[in-house]
């Protein structure tokens, strides 16, 4: 398994477990600068992180807690917030405390720089990478794409069907796939909707005459747009009392690929509670240059181009 993964992915690997419980193996890991993971259990008053190495004390000094902490471009909250979470690091030294107990000095910053140099610097637009959701804001989702290095996924790139907040799709800690959308001045932006299938791939799951569930995403004077899947919505006839965010049962009147339209009738309305599940992905490759959402015989063309 690659060591350049989102934090939390290595911690349960048997090799990682074996190493952090053995001084001899920790010494070998120091010499090879191998990236390891364990849980940060305390952030002391000087903002040094204490890491649980299975009975062996590990310390990440504040200035080694994250890239940018030394020059002040990153605030201490980036270190404090790691308590009770898996954290990646390389071993920098093994010493003894005054009582003779071993103390292992660690650096997360060096692990992140290694990840940047060996992995992230080689990423290109269109590359598909594993990611883990770290926090959600109204404007988008932040995801760890390797060793705690964070990239933003703007809300309009999460799915074709528009949502009001990323929490409708994701939960913190969810493992997903993402596409590298842009790289500018070292900042990486992610996209997601291109992995959730084309209009036709999603429409194939439904048939005219069926009654299925959906979520109302917008209400206009000519009807309500109802999401049938994250990358597919249909237009329903207006029904009194229907609001954005309602869960509904809808009858599928017709599916028209050449117009990229699905006509619906709302049968019933229910309260909707967010319960995001792992996304269903239609792309199994590790890179895409372009994504064509619209059907081939549709006059309207909807596509994404990933420029080198």
UniProtKB/TrEMBL annotation:
GO MF: mRNA binding; structural constituent of ribosome
UniProt domain S1 motif: residue ranges: 126-193, 209-240
Signal sequence extent: none
GO biological process, one term: translation
InterPro entries, per database record: NA-bd_OB-fold, Ribos_protein_bS1-like, S1_domain
Name this polypeptide is given: 30S ribosomal protein S1
Family from the record: Belongs to the bacterial ribosomal protein bS1 family.
Gene Ontology annotations for the cellular component aspect, listed alphabetically: ribonucleoprotein complex; ribosome
Keywords: Ribonucleoprotein, Ribosomal protein
PANTHER family registered for this protein in UniProt: 30S RIBOSOMAL PROTEIN S1, SMALL RIBOSOMAL SUBUNIT PROTEIN BS1C
Stored Gene3D superfamilies: Nucleic acid-binding proteins (2.40.50.140)
Gene, per the UniProt record: rps1
């Amino acid at each position: 398994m690659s060591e350049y993964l989102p934090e939390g992915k290595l911690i349960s690997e048997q090799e990682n477990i074996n190493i952090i419980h053995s001084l001899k193996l920790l010494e070998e890991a120091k010499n090879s600068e191998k990236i390891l993971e364990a849980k940060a259990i305390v952030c002391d008053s000087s903002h040094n992180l204490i890491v649980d190495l299975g009975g062996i004390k590990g310390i990440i000094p504040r200035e080694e807690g994250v890239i940018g902490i030394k020059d002040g471009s990153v605030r201490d909250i980036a270190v404090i917030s790691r308590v009770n979470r898996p954290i990646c690091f390389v071993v920098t030294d093994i010493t003894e405390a005054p009582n003779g107990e071993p103390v292992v000095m660690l650096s997360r910053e060096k692990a992140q720089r290694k990840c940047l140099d060996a992995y992230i610097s080689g990423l290109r637009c269109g590359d598909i990478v594993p990611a883990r959701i770290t926090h959600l804001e109204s404007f988008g989702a932040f995801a760890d794409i390797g060793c705690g290095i964070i990239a933003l996924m703007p809300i309009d790139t999460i799915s074709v069907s528009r949502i009001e907040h990323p929490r409708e799709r994701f939960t913190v800690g969810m493992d997903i796939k993402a596409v590298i959308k842009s790289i500018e001045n070292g900042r990486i932006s992610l996209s997601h909707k291109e992995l959730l299938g084309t209009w036709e791939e999603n429409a194939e799951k439904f048939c005219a005459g069926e009654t299925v569930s959906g979520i109302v995403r917008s209400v206009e004077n000519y009807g309500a747009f109802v999401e049938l899947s994250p990358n597919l919505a249909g237009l329903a006839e207006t029904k009194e009392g229907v609001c954005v965010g309602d869960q509904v049962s809808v009858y599928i009147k017709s599916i028209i690929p050449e117009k990229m339209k699905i006509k619906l009738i709302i049968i019933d309305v229910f309260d909707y509670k967010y319960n995001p599940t792992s996304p269903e992905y239609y792309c199994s490759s590790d890179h895409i240059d372009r994504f064509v959402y619209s059907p081939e015989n549709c006059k309207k063309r909807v596509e994404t181009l990933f420029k080198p």
